[in-house]
Amino acid sequence: MAKDPVRVLVTGAAGQIGYALVPMIARGVMLGPDQPVILHMLDIPPAAEALNGVKMELVDAAFPLLKGVVATTDAVEACTGVNVAVMVGGFPRKEGMERKDVMSKNVSIYKSQASALEAHAAPNCKVLVVANPANTNALILKEFAPSIPAKNITCLTRLDHNRALGQISERLNIQVSDVKNVIIWGNHSSTQYPDVSHATIKTPSGQKPVRELVSDDDWLKGEFIKTVQQRGAAIIKARKLSSALSAASAACDHIRDWVLGTPEGTWVSMGVYSDGSYNVPAGLIYSFPVTCRAGEWTIVQGLSVDEFSRKKMDATAEELTEEKALAYSCLS
Asked: Is the pTM of this model over 0.85?
């Protein structure tokens, strides 16, 4: 039986991440090799011509799973009937701009897109916010789309999670697929805490703790954390452009695991609405370790948290609390 197509919205679709992301979605990387999709692409009016060029290329690629393309600068048209929304469009911080200026631009973007999703998306629409400040943009979206369940609004920290896996695999010269259960706690910013306390590596003699195999706590508590926190800046320095391919790939991983489930015994990191787990203030969008089943995520409970981790987790929660206050001040 052929499946009904799923409508996937990508905002900022003519931008760099969008250009990397839409072919992945059309190829089945996000929702599976047997799931037809209809792509909804939204961008701002100045990008309309470029957006149309992306649509032409999607037609030219003749993707068997792609059953239709909506390319528009109208938020209502873009949001109508969508089952999955990947919010890549946002206002990037430019040199000399204050945080509050960037925040107020993004607050107004996410407020209006929330209203369009609220009124026109499919009832159980799953939302992933990629544009920075991702956690706080997601929180604003949640505020202004009250009929979308809070559990359906998430932000991307899977990129940081994957970066952490990559650093461990490089350090030990092993396959990245043999590393699992790192955690990104907190904000998708340089205060995030990449934590390997519970991470393991598949070896011929079974799962072994990362800490044991790396056997260099100074590196794990120092350079490793810093490298993951600042990887985005390192890529901008090298490419003169921000990470697009890896961000698009992580967005696909995030939605795929959320919709199709995480493997038994494996968790991933997602920015989700805090319920107070691990003494993280409720009401923030904060990155936690989660498992997914039947389209629902669940925070992994009962993990031990040492003093070093506690401090890092609290510091990033504090930053998110400040960001939240800044965002709300932009609303008044």
From this structure: yes
